[in-house]
């Protein structure tokens, strides 16, 4: 009997380990990605990459629902080995991602980290402040939004950090007696 429990436990552990190795972008789609299609290369020679599959990560700048889908402006950040953008300010620029379906802007909001695979459709010029910025426009094939990192500060409507453990009678913090 104890060996049966041991076998069951080892099988469960193996399945959990394998599930942890699953990629956020499916393997068939990830294998189609053009390795040399980094954002800087696409910005230098866009015609060479039109129609190519890319696999990019970054932080959402804005999300806008459109008639043709949802347009996400992304600040590109190279991903780590798990394809998640690290907490870094190193970027090659911005790109636009067009998801074919509706994505709620309150869920896909600014500063959320995403990883996506898609095909480069075109280069699109749009105003960015007082300049005209050239964005690669990517038709999204797969999209993964990462969970927020532990310890991130999330402000509520009343501008109090939501992780404060005690707020009573207008008294923030622990020691307001």
Order of helices and strands: HHHEEEEEEE
Taken from the alpha-carbon principal axes, the silhouette is: globular
Helicity range of the residues? Answer: 10-25%
In terms of DSSP E residues, the strand content is 35-45%
Strand order of the largest sheet: 1-2-3-5-4
Instruction: State the end-to-end distance.
Output: 57 Å
Report the strand count.
7
Radius of gyration: 21 Å
Count of runs of 4 or more consecutive helical residues: 3
- Biggest sheet architecture: 5 strands, mixed, barrel
Question: Spans with pLDDT under 50 lasting ≥5 residues?
Answer: 12-21
Mean pLDDT: 82
The chain-level structural class is alpha+beta
Describe the structure.
A hairpin with a 2-residue loop joins β1 and β2 (69-76). The protein has 177 residues and is an alpha+beta fold. It has helices at 2-21, 27-32, 39-44; strands at residues 53-66, 69-76, 94-99, 113-128, 131-145, 167-168, 171-172. It has three helices and seven strands, in the order αααβββββββ. A five-stranded mixed barrel has the order 1-2-3-5-4. Helices cover 18% and strands 36% of the residues. Residues 12-21 have low confidence and may be disordered.
């Amino acid at each position: 009997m104890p060996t049966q429990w041991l076998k069951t436990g080892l099988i469960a552990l193996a399945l959990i380990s394998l599930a942890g190795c699953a990629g956020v972008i499916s393997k068939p789609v990830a294998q189609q990605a053009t390795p040399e299609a980094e954002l800087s290369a696409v910005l230098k020679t866009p015609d060479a990459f039109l129609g190519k599959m890319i696999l990019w990560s970054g932080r959402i700048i804005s999300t806008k629902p459109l008639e043709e889908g949802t347009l996400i402006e992304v600040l590109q950040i190279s991903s780590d080995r798990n394809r998640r953008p690290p907490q870094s300010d190193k970027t090659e620029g911005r790109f636009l991602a067009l998801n074919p379906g509706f994505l709620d802007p309150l869920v896909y909001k600014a500063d959320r980290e995403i990883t996506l695979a898609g095909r480069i459709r075109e280069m699109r010029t749009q105003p960015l402040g007082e300049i005209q910025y050239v964005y690669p426009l990517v038709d999204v094939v797969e999209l993964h939004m990462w969970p927020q990192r532990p310890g991130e500060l999330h402000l509520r409507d009343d501008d109090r950090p939501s992780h404060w453990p005690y707020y009573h009678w207008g008294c923030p913090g622990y020691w307001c007696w």
